[in-house]
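ok, trying the design again with the full structure, not the truncated one.
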């Protein structure tokens, strides 16, 4: 039987720093000591410390800031590896915009159903708040779009599952970045109208209706993209009809 692989020095240092972060001993935005001091504290070389920091930076636990006021700081970008992987897959052609849209359809409608079942007053108020902000910005295409996206984030958050929120937000952000500049105000207004109906269903505790409306919202958005010449695949309704 093979023995357990011995951890490298930089892995041990990275694990120690990670443990301090998750134990609350190192707080968000707190600056770490200089490399020389860290090397002395852990009894390793500065090269080892540098590699440990690079590992934690890639994991979204630390951020390295250059220039005046720079240094190494604690952060909480734990979705960073997932975002990077999806971006690389998209850039390499291993996944498409259609794959991202299908992921939204797989994740967000069930989340909306859970939101109708689990939504609490504070979360419902936050959802209604961003819906009102969107209504007030109907004349500003960019601001309206921003509020529309935030509506989806808050809707998913109402499901009460942090992992679901992480996955939805990651997929949504990459898809939105990939389609930047391809939306117009009319598109944003059309999907915004769906959000009122979704809000009503969630507030009334109508899980199946919230799920159905979220599917319709996303399928409508995908169809609008397709009409603008964006290759995002065929919608569910079209596949069923075929």
């Amino acid at each position: 039987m093979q023995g357990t692989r011995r951890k490298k020095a930089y892995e041990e240092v990275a694990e120690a720093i990670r443990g301090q972060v998750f134990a609350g001993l190192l707080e968000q935005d707190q600056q770490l000591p200089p490399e020389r001091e860290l090397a002395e504290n852990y009894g390793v070389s500065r090269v080892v410390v540098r590699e440990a920091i690079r590992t934690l930076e890639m994991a979204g636990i630390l951020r390295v800031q250059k220039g005046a006021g720079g240094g190494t700081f604690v952060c909480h970008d734990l979705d960073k590896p997932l975002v990077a992987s999806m971006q690389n897959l998209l850039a390499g052609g291993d996944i498409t915009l259609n794959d991202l849209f299908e992921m939204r359809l797989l994740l967000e409608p069930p989340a909306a159903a859970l939101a109708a079942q689990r939504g609490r007053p504070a979360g419902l108020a936050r959802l209604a708040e961003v819906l009102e902000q969107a209504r007030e910005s109907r004349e500003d295409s960019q601001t309206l779009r921003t509020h529309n996206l935030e509506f989806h984030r808050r809707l998913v958050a109402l499901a009460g599952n942090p992992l679901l929120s992480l996955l939805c937000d990651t997929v949504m952000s990459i898809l939105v970045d990939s389609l930047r500049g391809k939306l117009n105000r009319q598109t944003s207004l059309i999907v915004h109208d769906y959000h009122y109906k979704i809000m009503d269903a969630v507030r009334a505790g109508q899980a199946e209706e919230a799920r159905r409306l979220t599917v319709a919202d996303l399928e409508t958005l995908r169809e609008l993209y397709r009409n603008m010449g964006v290759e995002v695949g065929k919608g569910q309704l079209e596949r069923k009809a075929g």
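Keeping the full-length input from now on. Residues 80-230 form a domain with the Four Helix Bundle (Hemerythrin (Met), subunit A) fold (CATH 1.20.120.530).
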